[in-house]
Specification:
The complex is a heterodimer of chains A (296) and B (589).
Chain A (H helix, E strand, L loop, with lengths): L21 H13 L3 E6 L2 H5 L5 E2 L5 E4 L4 H15 L5 E6 L1 H6 L2 H9 L4 E7 L36 H6 L5 E6 L3 H12 L4 E7 L3 H4 L6 H10 L6 E4 L3 E4 L9 H5 L9 H28 L1
Parallel strand pairs in A: 1-3, 1-4, 4-5, 5-7, 6-7
Antiparallel strand pairs in A: 6-8, 8-9
Chain B lengths: L19 E2 L11 E5 L5 H5 L6 H9 L3 H9 L5 H7 L3 H4 L12 H14 L15 E5 L3 H12 L3 E6 L7 H4 L8 H14 L2 E4 L6 H4 L7 E4 L5 E2 L13 E2 H10 L8 E5 L3 H12 L3 E5 L11 H9 L3 E3 L2 E9 L2 E13 L7 E14 L1 E4 L3 E2 L14 E3 L3 E4 L6 E5 L9 H21 L1 H10 L10 H4 L35 H4 L12 H9 L12 H5 L5 E3 L6 E3 L9 H5 L5 E5 L2 H4 L1
Parallel strand pairs in B: 3-4, 3-6, 4-5, 6-19, 8-15, 9-10, 9-15, 10-11
Antiparallel strand pairs in B: 2-22, 7-16, 12-13, 13-14, 17-18, 18-19, 20-21
The chains are: A alpha/beta (296), B alpha/beta (589).
Bound molecules: flavin-adenine dinucleotide, thiamine diphosphate (TPP), iron/sulfur cluster (SF4) (3 copies) and magnesium ion.
Flavin-adenine dinucleotide binds next to helix 7, strand 4, helix 11, helix 12 and helix 14 of chain B.
Chain lengths: 296, 589
Amino acid sequence: MQLDNLNPEHMCSGHVGCPGCGAAIAMRFVLKALGDKTMMVIPACCWSIIAGSYPQSALKIPVLHTAFETGGAAASGVRAAQDIKGDTETTVVTWAGDGGTFDIGFQALSGAVERNENFIYFCYDNEAYMNTGVQRSSSTPYGAWTTTTPGQHWKKLRKKNIVEVLVAHRIPYAATASIAFPEDLMAKVEKAKSMTGSRFIHIFSSCPTGWGMPSEMSIKIARMAVQTTIFPLYEVEDGLRYTINYTPKGYLVNEYFRLQGRFKHLTEEDLDSIQEMVDEDWNLLLRKAGISLETS
Amino acid sequence: MATQQPLTNPSPLLIPCSYLTTEGNKTGSWRFLRPKYEEKTSPCSAACPAGEDIGRVEMLTAQGSFKEAWETILLENPFPGVCGRVCYHPCEQQCNRREFDEPVAIHILERFLADTASRYELKPSLQKLESKRQKIAVVGSGPSGLAAGYFLTLLGYQADVFEALPEPGGVLRWGIPLYRLPLSILNQEIAQIRELGVQIHCGKSISQELLRGGKSEYDAIFLGCGHSRSLPLKIPGEDLDGVKNGLQFLTKIRRGEVADLEGTAAVIGGGNTAVDTARSAARLGAKVILIYRRRRQDMPAFAEEVEMALEEGVELWELQAPVKIAAQDGDFVVTLRHMQVVEKNRQKRARIKPDSNKKKEIRVQHLFKAIGGEASEPWYDPPKKKRGMLRLSDCVLLHKSREPTLVYGGDLVADIKSVAHAVASGKQAAIALDILFNEGLDAVRPKLQTCLVGDGPSISLETYMSGPRSLRNHRVVRYHDLNTDYFQFAPMITQPRLLREERFQSFAEINLKIGASLAIREAERCFNCGLCNQCDNCQLFCPEIAVTRDNNPRGRHINYDYCKGCGLCVVECPRNAMILEEELLCDRS
Ligand SMILES: Cc1cc2nc3c(=O)[nH]c(=O)nc-3n(C[C@H](O)[C@H](O)[C@H](O)COP(=O)(O)OP(=O)(O)OC[C@H]3O[C@@H](n4cnc5c(N)ncnc54)[C@H](O)[C@@H]3O)c2cc1C
Ligand SMILES: Cc1ncc(C[n+]2csc(CCOP(=O)(O)OP(=O)(O)O)c2C)c(N)n1
Ligand code: SF4
Ligand code: SF4
Ligand code: SF4
Ligand SMILES: [Mg+2]
């Protein structure tokens, strides 16, 4: 990997993330790119635990642990406090799970970005409420087993497209990123850091425990999600200018699903209809990127 | 109600604030699988008869460390300039990259490194072991004899090479034509062997007496006399005046003794000698027909050579067996019998039989016999069976208590007759003798086994001398062991060549040089199967920050205090330079 990976670490060993935790990898990359002039708000999620219980902290930056639904609001407050202190150098960020972003923290997030608060909101997405034992969220994808969509009642609703929701707020920067593409991820974090106003980065973070897959497959699965366009890598500036960062080479979704226990009940027909949905979403994204090409 | 405090002096927050890191948690105790750095064997190196460390050679080339790359070859093969040109490169056949797009052009890079070394007059720094008391005589200065001398010298022995002809090189000098192997390259690599300390005595034909001498000054004798006598066709007319012998024809060309050929020439045979005879005759002006008993795919000549011959206008007549040669007004009339395939065996050459009684005749002005060779003296061949005899993969060792030990090598014993096999033979002989002198005959086979490259039969001198390569696992890395997500499609470099028309104007080398930037780009295509190229993926993806760069030669280590054994580093290593093992209780302490 050709990457300036020499940036210092701002995260410590000895954290209590599961073996192969994608969210831990995501945090590591993001902090490498952000540097230590960062303050972080973490609403309830796996990372509330991974970061260590009092008096320990796995992060070498100031962290404010807050209530589940407050990611957007708490960060707005921290930013305001820093501004009052005259500290414009420090980057204020929120680090929340998909449950804390798509669902319960949604109104705080929407409110904050509508006000164009000057912060970066990171959502590390493991596609369910993992910390409390794998309950489905609106980020859980179509087809997935969770403890609240068990057996034949696997989730038959689509994953909410959170980036498009943020794009609709016309914020300066919204992007997807993946732990399997560290170069792209860190470049996006650096780009976001250099901007002002509300910035949103959605990071695909595999979860071996909740997805029923071997821990060593975390990166491989994350990469396949991008290759199959299940999770395309793209960014949108000012809610208008779309850039697709990775153009895949026609991988089919089957293998991605076959490798994960949470999808093992799916039949060939299910997978065919999922393939159709994925293709439809990808074509929609292409159209959006195309539209922005025409207008620019 | 309290008045508002100035911001510079806030009241203490009533929330707990962590003051320790998590590093006190030794989360490595969760681990039940243990990742480890373990380099393995690349399939190309196991397929190279000389066992060259190809994955590493390409890694160094990609880094621009041309001298180190060249020296890495020299540790296993003194002839990179020769082999980069004439070896049939079985390594590329086994290259894992073949399954991805196209193999790495290993031979082109090998040649590039040798040419670069020669261009900058580089001197290799090769370590010789401390000198030993034993002396070894080498009969024949073909590639097997020279390799034996070279490796014996590296192992600390005095080696005297005796050559009957006035100059050293064997078939490399007198057989393989200049358009494939320019003289300067051969001379250069032989000079290097001499500089290492190998004594080459030319014009000294050795008689069988040397083998018998009870009081011989030599402790061992390596016989690398080659197959220089042509086999007879066993058909009427083959000894007619003017019927020429292919190998002698090639030798004469190299001595500058052959004039142009007019008319049609027929060459009988299907090996390298036949193909080179045909191509040389074409360069001298003849229209050439190559006559072979079996089919093209059965020809023992290397496929690429056959292809080039056809490209140069040589006509190939397959399934035609000559049965009679007659002289007619200064020409030759050859009677050919049509053959047909009886049994197809994919591994071996097809069996054939006459196709009823179909025959035809062909009238030619020149006729060359080139159906292969044999030892020119019966004592060059190893005896059938004898006490103290050890048949190894590339040589035959005959140990006698009161007389010098004999080792038969090169073409005399080879199944596949090639330069790389001749080098392998010289190397195996040198190592086998070293083991014999140090530990006795019984140790030879088991000890050789420890320096196999992969499953063998090729062996590595570096491994034998306990160099870094000896730490590698012999397991051969296959395509499915790699994580190819990190590799991009890139076509193989194409060998620049003289135009077809230009080739006939002289015996100038056909294959042209490539530049350093192309070489680096080609070397970068190599996956470095089983070898760590410091890509740092293992460090990058570890969720535990348990992989740390350091100054040990490997460049990094795993901190088992924190490694949870997730296995990500092992899977994300693109080239399978790591393994994941079961955690043993004894490893814990
Ligand atoms: C025309 C031709 C083309 C070939 N092309 C290729 C090719 O493209 N690629 C490839 O890999 N292989 C090729 N080969 C095969 C390859 O050249 C041989 O396998 C290789 O040279 C064998 O090496 P050797 O050391 O066993 O014997 P040789 O190269 O035959 O050398 C034997 C030497 O021993 C000397 N000698 C013999 N008896 C005595 C004695 N009593 N005293 C002193 N000296 C003696 C001879 O004079 C000779 O110099 C080709 C062979 C031929 C004939
Ligand atoms: C208001 C409230 N409801 C429920 C919880 C319990 N709770 C803590 S973390 C969590 C799940 C978080 O899910 P997500 O945001 O996706 O993060 P993850 O744990 O998956 O990383 C829940 C339900 C809570 N802390 N607060
Ligand atoms: S990719 Fe490189 S190391 Fe692997 S088989 Fe091919 S040449 Fe050898
Ligand atoms: S990635 Fe880290 S934690 Fe996982 S096995 Fe490798 S060293 Fe251990
Ligand atoms: S991942 Fe890269 S640095 Fe780590 S062992 Fe493999 S090749 Fe070496
Ligand atoms: Mg979640």
